[in-house]
Design a protein that fits this description.
heterodimer, A: alpha/beta, Rossmann fold, Alpha-Beta Plaits, 4-stranded antiparallel sheet, 11 helices, B: mainly alpha, about 75% helix
Chain lengths: ~300, ~250
C-alpha cells in the first residue's frame, strides 16, 4: 500500500524553484531515504509533505488523504522531527516529553508509561531533571527525537535527525528506528550522511536542485551506477617508469600516487587487473599490497550530483 | 481535550515559571510599599474625579493595570520564544491550526492578565481598602479592564514578536515600549496637573485608559469620560488583535 503519492509537486519562491515537479511514491512500512546536497530541496519537500507550507502546484496524497485540501487531518497521523532544534528552554527533559504527549492528547497514564520507556531507549534517564537550555546539542537532539515517540503515528518524517549526535547515539537511533519500522511505522528520512541511508533505508531518492535524479533501492543504485570498481596496488619500491608500462591499457583510468601507489578505476576491473599484474610480473616489479574498494553509496551520490550539475 | 485548551495548558506551563511569578509579585510590591509610602509625605492627596485619594492607594490601584501590562507583554513573548526555539514550526506540524495557536495565546494572555490583576488587587488591598467603594460595576469593570488590557498588550507583544528575529532588536523594542507605557501614563501620577504636552501624551497611551477604568471600578468614580475610555480601550484592543492575528496567519516558516 502506498503511504505517500506525490505528483508534479512544485514549490517556488518568486523566480526561485525550490522543488521542481517531483514525483514520489513511498510504500507503507518502509524507510524511504531522501538524499541530496545542502540546498537541494530536501527540507522544502519535508515542509510540503508535512503540510507546513502549501505547494505552488502539483498534488500530494499522504496516507490516502489529499494533503493540499486536508492538512489538519494528515497532521493528526504523522510525526515530524524537523532539522532545526525545537525545544522549550525552561522545561526539564521529562516535563517537555510529558507536555508534548499532552499536546497530542495522550492520556496521562499512557504518557507516564511512554515517558519512562523513552528515557531508557534514548539514554536520557540521567538528564531527566535537566532543563532543555542546559543540555548539550546532542542531548537536546535526542530529546527532540524521543519526544516525537510520545504520540502514535503512522508516518514519521525525520529531517537529518542525527545532526549533533555522537557515533554511538547515532547508531542507537538508527537501530531504534529499524525496530519501529518492524512494528509498521513508515519513515521518510532525509540525510546527507550516506552510510546512514545505506544502513537504514529500503529505498532512496536523490534530489538535486529541486529535481529528483533517481529513486531505487541501495543495492539497485549500486548495481545501476556502481559498476566501476577501484583497485589499489602498493609497490614495495618507487618505480617511476611504471607510468609508461601501463599507459597502453585501455578502458580504465589509472592514477599514480608518489610512485608506489597505483589506483585503477574501471568497469572491467578484473580484466584490467590481470593485464596489470602480467606487466608488473614481466618487468619484475614486486607488489607489497593489493586491495579492491567496494563501491559505496557515497561514490554513486557524488557521481550523480556531479553528472546532474554538468547536465544543467 | 480541545486543542486550544491543550495549547493553553502548555503555554501556562512554560510562562508561569517561579522566576516569572516572583517578578510579577515583587516588582509591583516594591512600587506599592516602597515608592508609595516613600512619596506619601511629598504627595499628600491625589485628585480622582470628585474625591481625593492618598498616594499609596492611588499607586496601588495603578499597579493593577501596570501589572496586567507587564505580565501580558511577557506572555506575548511566547510567540517570539516559540519562533526562536523552533516550537512554532513544531506545533504547526502537529494537530493544530494557526487559529488554535492564535486563540490559545490570547487565552493564555487573558488568564495571565486576570491572575496578575487579582494578585495585585489582593496584595494592594490593605493599601486602598479605606478608599474602596464597592458597587455593582466594580468587579465587571476590573474584569473588563483586565481582559481588554491583556488582549491589547498581548497583541502588541505578538506583533513585535512576528516582526523581529534578533534578540537584541526584540529586547530594545520591548524595553522601550515598556518604559513609554509605564511612565507616560496615569499609573504613577494623575493626568490633572501634568504639564502639556505630557498630559496629552498620557492619552496616547493605552495603559492610561486601562488604569483609569480599573480605578473607576475600585473607587466608584465611573463617569461618562471613563465610559469613552472603555470604548477607546476596546477599539485599540480589537484593532491590535486583528493586526496580530493577520501577521500570525501570514507568518512564514
Amino acid at each position: 500500500m502506498s503511504c505517500i503519492e506525490v505528483s508534479r509537486l512544485s514549490k517556488s519562491y518568486g523566480s526561485i524553484s525550490a522543488v521542481n515537479k517531483i514525483e514520489l511514491s513511498v510504500e507503507s512500512g518502509q524507510v524511504f531515504g531522501f538524499l541530496g546536497p545542502n540546498g537541494a530541496g530536501k527540507s522544502t519537500t519535508i515542509k510540503l509533505l508535512t503540510t507546513l507550507i502549501p505547494p505552488t502546484s502539483g498534488s500530494m496524497c499522504i496516507l490516502g488523504i489529499d494533503a493540499v485540501n486536508n492538512p489538519l487531518q494528515i497532521r493528526h497521523k504523522i510525526g515530524v522531527v524537523l532539522q532545526q532544534p525545537s525545544y522549550e528552554p525552561t522545561l526539564s527533559v521529562e516535563k517537555s516529553l510529558d507536555k508534548y504527549g499532552m499536546m497530542w492528547n495522550v492520556p496521562k497514564i499512557e504518557r507516564k508509561k511512554r515517558l519512562e520507556q523513552l528515557l531508557v531507549d534514548f539514554d536520557l534517564k540521567e538528564i531527566r531533571k535537566k532543563r532543555n537550555e542546559d543540555l548539550s546539542i546532542g542531548q537536546r537532539r535526542r530529546v527532540q527525537v524521543a519526544r516525537e515517540f510520545m504520540h502514535d503515528m503512522e508516518l514519521l518524517f525525520l529531517d537529518e535527525p542525527t545532526v549533533g549526535l555522537d557515533p554511538n547515539a547515532r547508531r542507537n537511533l538508527l537501530d531504534y528506528l529499524k525496530n519501529k519500522v518492524k512494528t509498521g511505522l513508515t519513515i521518510f528520512y532525509t540525510t546527507h550522511i550516506l552510510s546512514e541511508a545505506e544502513y537504514l533505508c529500503d529505498k532512496i531518492a536523490i534530489i538535486d536542485k529541486g529535481k529528483i535524479i533517481t529513486v531505487d533501492t541501495p543495492d539497485g543504485l549500486k548495481s545501476k551506477f556502481g559498476n566501476e570498481k577501484t583497485i589499489k596496488i602498493h609497490l614495495n619500491e618507487e618505480r617511476k617508469e611504471i607510468i609508461s608500462f601501463l599507459s597502453n591499457i585501455e578502458d580504465c583510468k589509472i592514477d599514480f600516487d608518489n610512485g608506489t601507489n597505483i589506483i585503477i578505476h574501471s568497469e572491467k576491473s578484473e580484466y584490467i587487473l590481470l593485464q596489470i599484474l602480467k606487466i608488473l610480473n614481466d618487468e619484475g616489479i614486486e607488489i607489497e599490497d593489493l586491495s579492491a574498494v567496494p563501491t559505496n553509496l557515497e561514490d554513486i551520490f557524488l557521481k550523480m550530483v556531479r553528472e546532474n550539475a554538468s547536465d544543467n | 481535550m480541545h486543542p486550544i485548551i491543550r495549547l493553553v495548558n502548555r503555554n501556562l506551563t512554560i510562562s508561569l515559571n517561579p522566576g516569572f511569578l516572583i517578578w510579577q509579585v515583587i516588582f509591583p510590591l516594591i512600587y506599592i510599599f516602597v515608592a508609595g509610602f516613600a512619596y506619601a509625605p511629598l504627595i499628600q492627596n491625589v485628585p480622582l474625579g470628585a474625591r481625593d485619594l492618598d498616594y499609596p492607594a492611588f499607586l496601588a490601584s495603578g499597579m493593577i493595570g501596570f501589572n496586567i501590562m507587564n505580565s501580558t507583554l511577557v506572555s506575548g513573548i511566547i510567540i517570539w520564544n516559540d519562533r526562536r526555539h523552533g516550537m512554532f514550526e513544531q506545533i504547526m506540524s502537529g494537530p493544530f491550526t494557526r487559529s488554535h495557536y492564535i486563540l490559545s495565546n490570547i487565552c493564555t494572555i487573558g488568564i495571565v492578565g486576570l491572575v496578575s490583576a487579582s494578585l495585585i488587587a489582593l496584595v494592594g488591598y490593605p493599601v486602598f481598602f479605606d478608599s474602596i467603594e464597592f458597587s455593582l460595576i466594580t468587579i465587571p469593570l476590573i474584569v473588563f479592564g483586565a481582559i481588554t488590557g491583556s488582549v491589547l498588550f498581548g497583541s502588541l507583544a505578538s506583533i513585535i514578536s512576528t516582526r523581529l528575529r534578533s534578540s537584541e532588536g526584540f529586547n530594545v523594542i520591548i524595553n522601550t515600549v515598556f518604559l513609554f507605557f509605564a511612565f507616560v501614563s496615569t499609573a504613577f501620577y494623575p493626568a490633572e496637573g501634568a504639564p502639556e504636552p505630557l498630559r496629552s501624551a498620557f492619552y496616547l497611551n493605552p495603559l492610561t485608559y486601562l488604569v483609569d477604568v480599573i480605578r473607576a471600578g475600585i473607587f466608584g468614580t465611573f463617569t461618562e469620560f471613563v465610559f469613552y475610555e472603555m470604548i477607546v480601550l476596546l477599539a485599540m484592543a480589537a484593532g491590535l488583535f486583528i493586526i496580530a492575528s493577520k501577521l500570525l496567519t501570514k507568518l512564514d516558516f
